[in-house]
Design brief:
Largest sheet: 2 strands, parallel
Strand content: 15-25%
Number of strands: 4
Distance between the termini: 24 Å
Low-confidence stretches: none
Shape: globular
Number of helices: 1
Mean pLDDT: 80
Radius of gyration: 13 Å
Oligomer: single chain
Length: about 100
């Protein structure tokens, strides 16, 4: 799993984080290789701090973007691709309102 904040995203609702998000997606693409079983991984909500990728290990149910409890999420010029075959979906959005991908 790749945390966009580790690639420079601020995540403050003001800054345009597209470049950092694309860097994280590119790193995901290079890793690739997710399985059908990986799609069943449950990402438990962690309430005692910011849920960094290190809390969940290297596996996630998606190969691109996992977002939870987000309002007004907008993705501009973001593509989800993998270099290796990957059986997982590109995105998983839980409790996300006003999502827009342009």
């Amino acid at each position: 799993m790749f945390n966009v904040k580790e690639y420079g995203a601020l995540g403050n609702g003001i800054a345009l984080d597209s470049k950092a998000i694309q860097k994280a997606i590119d790193a995901c693409a290079a890793a690739g290789g997710g399985t059908v079983e990986d799609r069943e991984i449950v990402m438990n909500e962690v309430r005692d701090g910011y849920p960094t990728a290190k809390r969940y290990g290297k596996k996630s149910p998606v190969y691109g973007l996992f977002a939870r409890n987000v309002d007004n999420l907008k993705l501009y010029n973001v593509d989800f691709m993998t270099e290796q075959p990957d059986a997982r979906d590109a995105m998983l959005l839980e409790n996300v309102t006003r999502f827009k991908q342009v």
